[in-house]
Amino acid sequence: FEMESAEDYSAIRQRFEDKGQGHVFKYFDDYSEEEKTAFIEQCKEIDLDEFERLYQEVCLNQTKVDEHDGIEPIDKDLIHSFSTIDKETKQKWTFTGAQQIVKGTVALMVFAGGMGTRLGSSDPKGMYDIGLPSHKSIFQIICEKFLRVQSYAAEICQRAGMNCAARFRCVLYIMTSGVNDKATRDFFAQNENFGVPEDRLVFFKQASLPTFSFDGKLMMEDRTKIAIGPNGNGALFEALRSDQVLKNSISENKVEYIHLVGVDNILNKFLDPIQIGLAYTKGLKGCSKFSQKMYPEEPIGIFVKKGGKIDIIEYTELGEDMAKQTYEDGTLKYNQGNIINFLLHVETLNDLVSKADILNSLYHKAIKKMPVYNEKTGTSEKPDKENSYKLELYIHSFLPYVEGSYELIEGIRSEEFCPIKNKEG
Questions:
Q1: DSSP string of 277-291?
Q2: Whose C-alpha in 9, 191, 336, 396 is 20 to 30 A from the C-alpha of 355?
Q3: What distance, in Å, lies between the first and last C-alpha atoms of the chain?
Q4: Which residue has the higher pLDDT, 53 or 134?
Q5: What are the backbone dihedrals phi and psi of residue 164, each rounded to the nearest 5 degrees, phi first?
Q6: C-beta neighbour count of 90 within 10 angstroms
Q7: What is the secondary structure of 167-201 as a DSSP string?
Q8: CA–CA distance, 284 with 271 (Å, rounded to integer)
Q9: Residue 64 falls in which region: left (phi positive, over 0), alpha (psi -120 to 50) or beta
């Protein structure tokens, strides 16, 4: 090590020792110079105080609640199905939404921190060629739709007699992760951002959290790396709290609503004027798209009312009997499937970010089988049973804490929901 690196190493190792995590340096003296530098850089990114606090508050003190307590169908007047929205209302919402798109008061945010592993690719999922004749990547499709809807909004306003030439004022936010940030940025740069203006495109990296044993000890991915992974799409909350570039962009561009979507559903109607118009017309704190279930027991998250608040629960929490419950007209009571499509007011997001106690309560404690480094074989081996915790934060967990009105609007399944999860099927 050079002197500066040696000083870093000494201080960092002492910090880990003081927190009872000194075991991660067990093989450090055997590393190559390159491995030592990479390891120290990884250690710098781990906030041990935050890690310790989350372990204490989420893993040790999290109270188990009855998942079925207070689950009810969502009030019908908060659900807007296309079959029940009259033509005049659709036109009104569409025009209102188009006006806001032209003004640039709404932004699109894509959760793109995942890799294409399940698709047979070692690249970020957004770079995947889904097999169209054009061979367009998911990112290219998203960007082209993002630009197209802004041109469409300008046309709507022009037809209404407004003088508004097509312009691209909306901002596109791409949330990456530590494993794919550079590859994603490079891919956009190599393709000239797929036409998105440079000043309308912002990348930010979601936070990562270490995987740790049941007794709170950091775990090693292999001999030279601490096991670290993205902490779910709810990492947006932490980014809004700590990423100054992201915060400045939202403020400087006077963004009022952010449309949050997953990278893998290319059928999403990004910045849908009707959805935006609904939110603005009714002054909503947020608005989600849903898809009707194909059958009662379909394995998809479900919008429900839980404890008097709108929430999303896993299909396993609902149970077979409740999943089959119907109204007198034969329609399912629990029929609003989550397609990861949230339009949220910026004030709503900022309010959640400012409440640390709420954010802590949103973390899910997942129990995992984490490979363990075997000194004798020099390889990492997967255990027979669960041996670790991984903390995950999901964007939909915020719903019960929204203070104010929140409604749902239907997305036609055949037109708006086809997530790309696997290479086939």
A1: HHHHHHT-SEEEEEE
A2: 336
A3: 51
A4: 134
A5: -140, 95
A6: 16
A7: -----EEEEE-TTTHHHHHHHHHHTGGGG--GGGE
A8: 16
A9: beta
- pTM across the whole model: 0.85
* Predicted confidence (pLDDT) per residue in 271-330, tens digit: 999 999 999 999 999 999 999 999 999 988 899 998 888 999 888 788 888 999 999 999
CA 24 to chain centre: 30
At 319, which amino acid appears? G
**Contact assessment for residue 350 and residue 236, using Cβ atoms and an 8 Å cutoff:** no
Answer whether 282's CB lies under 8 Å from 405's CB: yes
The two tokens of residue 277 are 């118009």
Residue 274: which residues within 8 A CB-CB, separation 6 or more? 90, 93, 94, 97, 409
Place of tokens 């709810």: 234
Residue 27 vs residues 98, 225, 251, 327, 375: alpha-carbon distances, Å: 59, 10, 46, 63, 10
Residues 347, 404, 306, CA angle at the centre, nearest 5°?
A: 120
**C-beta atoms surrounding 38 within 10 Å:** 14
Over the stretch 190-202, which tens digit does the pLDDT of each residue have?
A: 999 999 999 999 9
Number of neighbouring beta carbons within 10 Å of residue 319: 13
Residue 300: count other Cβ atoms within 10 Å of its Cβ: 17
